[in-house]
Amino acid sequence: MPCVCTQCLQHARTLGLPGAPPTKDDLQKAYREAAKRWHPDRFESDPAQRPEAEERFKRVQVAYRELAEHHDHPINEPPLTLFAKPADPPPFSFDNAPGCFIAPHFPADVDRLIREHLGPEHTPLAIVDLSRPGSPPGSFSQFLLLTGRAVLLRHPLNIVSLLWYTELGEVTLSDRRSNGNLTRWQQLADRFLGPQPNYTLHIFRRNGALFSALSATPDDSVKRVVYNFLLRKKHEP
Q: pLDDT tier at 226 (50, 70, 90 boundaries)?
């Protein structure tokens, strides 16, 4: 049966299906039409439009994949509430790490950004800036947002993914060092760019699909905090 979670409704709009939850036939037809319309090969002679086509094509791919997945395994999304309860400060600290903020101490611009991405069913707890090195400080072009019920991830190209804690699978924190040693390329990166983060935080859905892999950003100390928080959420009743 079609899934009617918040994320699937957003993906349906991406494929031009803003009405009732789509059937599998509706989904496949809409995907073929959208993929054909925005395939980058159609814009070979129009370089100015090709970047937009590539962005839209990627969004179409993500939307179709997750809609198809949730169609076979619908998410039992927690019921919406008219107003979210006030946020209690989460039981952790980022120790003033740059680009990391905890409720209720969000700067005004960060608070506005959060409200743009959250509905009334969510209570924001903390946000981590994942913008790439070289981005304007505090741009939050990419971010990880922890709420009382779910984790949101804003990818490049402004694609936002949501993972309810009830659907949270394995969470791992792996060391990029192999047997305590860095590869030759990692050594060169450390030499020219300075010491790089050693750990990668992998977050999986309960069905085994990868939700996110955080490596270059944020700092390792922040990854550990998020890792421990998600483990607690995974094992909560």
A: very high
Omega before 2 within 30 of 0, i.e. cis: no
Amino acid occupying residue 121: E
pLDDT given for residue 183 in this prediction = 60
CATH class of 100-235: mainly beta
**pLDDT tens string 80-122:** 443 344 445 466 788 888 889 998 889 999 998 888 888 777 8
81 with 32: CB under 8 angstroms? Answer: no
Burial, 116: exposed, middle or buried (Cβ in 10 Å; 0-12, 13-18, 19+)? exposed
Task: Say how far apart CA 30 and CA 8 lie, in whole Å.
Answer: 14
| Phi, psi (rounded to 5 degrees) for 214 | -100, 120
Sequence-ordered strand ranges (E) for 7-137: 100-102, 124-129
53: enclosing H helix or E strand:
helix 50-72
Enumerate the CATH 2.30.29.30 domain ranges in the chain, comma separated: 100-235
Q: Identify the residue whose tokens are 């993972």.
A: 163
| Protein fold of 6-72 | Helix Hairpins (1.10.287)
Asked whether the bond before 86 is cis by omega within 30 degrees of 0, the reply is no
Query: Please, are residues 102 and 125 in contact by the beta-carbon 8 Å criterion?
Result: yes
Tell me what the mean pLDDT of segment 128-141 comes to. 76
Structure token pair of residue 107? 């700067």
Please state, in angstroms and as integers, the Cα–Cα distance from residue 57 to each residue in 143, 184, 213, following that order.
Answer: 22, 36, 22
